[in-house]
Specification:
Blueprint lengths: L1 E9 L5 E10 L4 E5 L6 H8 L7 E6 L2 E2 L5 H6 L1 E5 L10 H5 L1 H5 L4 H14 L4 H4 L9 H13 L5 E5 L7 H18 L2 E6 L2 H7 L2 E6 L3 E6 L1 H6 L4 H7 L3 H5 L15 E3 L4 H11 L3 E5 L5 E6 H4 L19 E2 L6 H9 L5 E5 L5 E6 H16 L14
Parallel strand pairs: 3-8, 3-9, 6-7, 7-8, 11-12, 14-15
Antiparallel strand pairs: 1-2, 1-4, 4-5, 9-10, 12-13, 15-16
Helix pairs in contact: 5-7, 15-16
């Protein structure tokens, strides 16, 4: 656990970077410090490992004041990842990662073995990359090396200062997913600084929003931050589409699915038309032999077909995106519905077999029920990742 008690940082010119910060970061969780440039989030991060010294107040690491620790010893027990990775250009990847273990007395062979283990952990091929140099890696690969090096001494605390901001959006999303995966396995206490509220909401268990001038505006879970911003500043900062993004925290498991307007490709057109009229549906979902979705059949097209022909002979509209109720969120279901020309989304199981379909009406009911449960103090389903949108 990391605790800030009335921490202030004032520079000699009178500038206040952090003003009376009170913040508690639970152990084993990812806390994200987010806010505009110059709001004090990076200064707060660097005061944890004493790269910046506070003017007043205390920072406690597991109940012990960091001011009582030798700075060098303190930093060896805290992993640190920065935006530009800070890799040593003249050292191989495995030796970059092995730096801290060797500094703390681990022999070179064991340190390199540990480095190769960590390369695998962060998704790097140790067989082909261990002997390379930083300039031979892509930006995303270098960031992975930076994370591996920070984990090399197995620190309980990991500080990350804008770690993914220097890479393109696709690589950035991949690195965020990798951090979420690593945290599920390692359970470190992670403090991450970013200016990107989307990143904060995706990776954070706890989000601390800073105001200009080093003041803390709100500390909350991502779902709570989106659902109940404390004031207009936070509301504007998290964005006008916070209602849509909040759906990422509501599971699709309780979404009611329709399963009657679904027919196999072998069904006759006459039967399909009768089913569509009985269900009042303008579209029918056509499935293959194994129950996988093949496409949508328009009732208007069916009425022009020979009655004894089968749905296999009918031109089908693409299914588009599908979603899995057991792992996806209501936002994933909504996205699939919006992107479908039929205004219906297809739900499938782990094997890709059709479970049913969802319409706007069913989504509206599920969203309303989820929001009412949240307002009553309910929580998102355990294990539902923010990235499941």
């Amino acid at each position: 656990m990391i605790t800030f008690e009335g921490v202030t940082k004032r520079y000699p010119d009178g500038t206040v970077a952090v003003d009376s910060l009170d913040l508690e970061i639970p152990g084993g969780k990812i806390a994200v410090l987010v806010g505009p440039s110059g709001c004090g989030k990076t200064t707060s991060l660097r005061m944890i490992n004493r790269l910046v010294e506070p003017t007043s107040g205390r920072i406690l690491l597991d109940g012990k004041d960091v001011q009582d620790a030798n700075p060098s010893v303190l930093r060896r027990g805290i992993g640190y990842v920065i935006q530009q990775t800070g890799l040593f250009p003249h050292r191989t990847i495995e030796d970059n990662i092995a730096t801290v273990p060797m500094l703390t007395g681990t022999d070179k062979r064991k340190a390199r073995e540990r480095a190769r283990e960590l390369m695998q952990l962060v998704g790097l091929d140790e067989a082909t990359m261990a002997k390379r140099y930083p300039h031979q890696l892509s930006g995303g690969q270098q960031q992975r090396v930076g994370v591996a090096r920070a984990l090399a001494a197995d620190p309980p605390v990991l500080l990350m200062d804008e770690p993914f901001s220097a890479v393109d959006p696709i690589v950035r999303a991949s690195l965020q997913d990798e951090l979420i995966r690593l945290q599920a396995e390692l359970h470190k206490t992670v403090v991450l600084v970013t200016h990107d509220v989307e990143e904060a909401i995706k990776v954070g268990d706890l989000v601390a929003v800073f105001r200009p001038g080093g003041h803390l505006a709100q500390v909350a879970s991502p779902e709570r931050l989106l659902g109940a911003p404390v004031d207009d500043y936070v509301r504007d900062f998290v964005g006008f589409d916070r209602g849509i993004r909040r759906l990422s925290f509501f599971p699709a498991a309780d979404l009611g699915l329709a399963d009657r307007a679904i027919l196999p490709a072998a069904a006759q057109v006459s039967d399909a038309i009768a089913t569509a009229k009985q269900e009042g549906e303008p579209w029918l979902l056509v499935t293959g032999e194994q129950g996988a979705p093949l496409g949508w059949a328009s009732v208007a097209d069916l009425e022009g077909m020979p009655p004894l022909s089968t749905l296999a002979d009918v031109p089908l509209a693409e299914v588009g995106h599908t979603f899995r109720p057991d792992t996806d969120s209501l936002r994933a279901a909504l996205d699939a519905t919006i992107l479908s020309r039929t205004e219906r989304a297809v739900a499938v199981d782990a094997d890709g077999r059709v479970l049913g379909t969802a319409s706007y009406e069913r989504l509206r009911d599920a969203i309303r029920a989820a929001e009412e449960a949240a307002d009553r103090g309910g929580a998102p389903a355990p294990g539902l990742a923010p990235g499941a949108a």
